[in-house]
Amino acid sequence: MHIPSKTLTEQEIIPFSAALHEQETATVSYDRDAWLYIPHTYLDYRYILGTRGENPLICIGINPSTAAPGDLDNTLKSVERIAHSNGYDSFIMFNVYAQRATDPDAMDAVRNEALHRENMAAFDYVLSLYGAGHTPAVWAAWGTIIEKRDYLIPTVRDMIAVGERRGAVWYSVGARSKKGHPHHPLYLRKDAKTEPFDISAYLDTLQAMHK
User: Fold this and answer.
1) I need a labelling partner for 63 at 20 to 30 A (CA). Which of 9, 93, 101, 193 fits?
2) Contacts for 104 with CB less than 8 Å, ≥ 6 apart
3) What are the tens digits of pLDDT across the range 127-163?
4) What is the pLDDT of residues 54-95, one digit of tens each?
5) What gap in Å lies between CA 43 and CA 40, rounded to an integer?
């Protein structure tokens, strides 16, 4: 379990560039050639967790839980299986908001702008990792949790803008909810297929519902 003891506003946020440098140079307990884990130690927030490859499937949840390299939770195990079954050589778990919280109700009530800014820098970095001939593939996979905080929809819109500059294509996997929410990775068949997802139209519809 990870329940935040204080808001991230009360903590120093390590800039993504500094966290990336530390991950590349610090002594770590995992195989750096196999894993991306930024920051490289367990903190109250996490930018990136995934495996290295030329063509990763980027899975987008709402916020990180307790997973770490070599210690994947059931959600991440499902993400890895689905990435491989769809022909990707690796996976990256990313999140709309980088604060760790086992219970999404424990997330910050107000978005920490420093964390958001650094998380968008992390997202741009992830999209830059694709090898020649590969298009960044982004899997929306947050279920209904996007309704937990008012700042989550605007945050996803910022992610769309970052993705457009990198030519990212959005997908969902599995049946969508009545409101159009993309399915969470848990309880999906391991051979479930990615399907094109109109992320902007989905957000427009969702925002209209909540006016």
Assistant:
1) 193
2) 62, 63, 145, 148
3) 999 988 999 999 999 999 999 999 999 999 999 999 9
4) 999 999 999 998 899 999 999 999 999 999 999 999 999 999
5) 9
Task: Report CA Rg, the chain.
Answer: 16
The type of residue at 142 is: W
Distance CA 137, CA 46 (A): 20
**CA–CA dist 6, 44 (Å, integer):** 9
* pLDDT confidence of residue 12: 83
Distance of CA 6 to the CA centre of its chain: 22
For the chain, how many helices (H) and strands (E)?
5, 7
Contacts of 132 (CB under 8 A, 6+ apart): none
Q: What is the pTM of this model?
A: 0.93
All residues at 6 or more sequence positions from 209 whose CB lies less than 8 Å from its CB, including other chains: 179
